[in-house]
Amino acid sequence: MDLKFSKVTRKGPITIITLSRPEVYNALHIDAHFELNKVFDNFSADPEQWVAIVTGAGDKAFCAGNDLKWQAAGGKRGWDKGGFAGLTSRFDCDKPIIAAVNGVAMGGGFEIALACDLIIASENATFALPEPRVGLAALAGGVHRLPRQIGLKRAMGMILTARHVSAKEGLELGFVNEVVPAGEALAAAERWAETICKNSPMSIRASKQAIQRGLEVSLEQAIAEQREYPAVKAMAASQDYIEGPKAFAEKRPPKWLGR
To answer: Are residues 92 and 172 in the same domain?
Structure first.
C-alpha cells in the first residue's frame, strides 16, 4: 500500500505505525484518516502481527489532533468506520495497541492515545482535550474514554478547563503507564510490546476482549458469559492452549503459534 501520511515498520510480530505529517505536528485530515484506517485494517487482519505501536514522526509531536488549518481553508472533514486515525471507533480489534507519545498529544491526538491499551510517554509529552477553546468538543472518544479511565471528577477537571497535562501528571492520574526520558518513548513501547509477545497471542486477545466486554455489563454477567466470547473460545480451541501447559510441564519456553 502506498502510504503518504504514515509509515509502517514491522519487527517480527510487532507493527510500528508512525503518523507522518511532521510539518503540522502530525495533525490529521480526511486523507490521513482513510489511509490509517487501511493500515489498522491490515494490522488487525494479519495473523503474523500480534502487537501494534503508534507514534508520531519527529521529536515534537505525537499528534496535534484535527488539522484545523485544513478545515479553516475549506478542507472536507471526516473519517472511515475506524474513527479518528482509523482507531478511535475500532472496537473489534483484540490485539494490543500501544501509544508511544513523543511530544504533543492534543485533541484527537490524545483521543488516539486513549483508544490504545497502553500509553508510554516521554517526559516532554503534553496531553489535553482543548476542543472547547476552538468551539468544538472531543467527540472522537475523548469525553467518553477519559472519565472511564481516570474517573469522572478528574476527567471533568481536564475537559471543562481544556488544560494541558504533563506526562508526569498523566502517570499520577492513571492514563499513562510509564514516563521515560525524551526520545525514548518508542524504545520503551517496543520493550512493552516484546514483553507482551512472550505470552500467547491467543491468551492476550482473549484477555483484552474479556476486559472490554466485561466492562460493559455487571461483574456477575461478565463472569457468566466470558467463555462464550469469540476470542476466549478461539483461545480454548487453539494449539497454544495445548502448548502452554505442555511447555510448562517440560520446563521449556513455549513456542506460540497464534492459532
So the answer is: yes
102 and 151, same domain (yes or no): yes
Same domain for 236 and 127: no
Question: The cell 468506520 sits on which residue?
Answer: 81
Catalytic residues: 111, 131
Render pLDDT for 219-238 as a digit per residue (tens, 0 to 9). Answer: 999 999 999 999 999 999 99
Q: Express each pLDDT in 83-142 by its tens digit.
A: 999 999 999 999 999 999 999 999 999 999 999 999 999 999 999 999 999 899 999 999
- How many angstroms separate the CA atoms of 113 and 101, rounded? 8
One-letter-per-residue 3-state SS of the chain: CCCCCEEEEEECCEEEEEECCHHHCCCECHHHHHHHHHHHHHHHHCCCCCEEEEEECCCCEEECCECHHHHHCCCCCCCCCCCHHHCCCCCCCCCCEEEEECCEEECHHHHHHHHCCEEEEECCCEEECCHHHHCCCCCCCHHHHHHHHHCHHHHHHHHCCCCCEEHHHHHHHCCCCEEECCCCHHHHHHHHHHHHCCCCHHHHHHHHHHHHHHCCCCHHHHHHHHHHCHHHHHHHCCCHHHHHHHHHHCCCCCCCCCC
> Residue 257 falls within a domain, yes or no?
no
